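quick one before i forget lol
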Amino acid sequence: MLKDLKIKVCGMMEEDNLRNLLGISPDYVGLIFYHKSPRAVNHRWTTPCLRPSCL
């Protein structure tokens, strides 16, 4: 039954936190790009950090 368990993490804002999170291999990661959201990501790091070499 646990094999069906999926992990989803949303609202990551800091690059270091996202890198650490990726180390535990969640099934899904949600990022918020709406600039008025208090959890919006910093656009300066999202493009290079989301490249396959980063993941």
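fyi The two ends are 28 Å apart (CA to CA).
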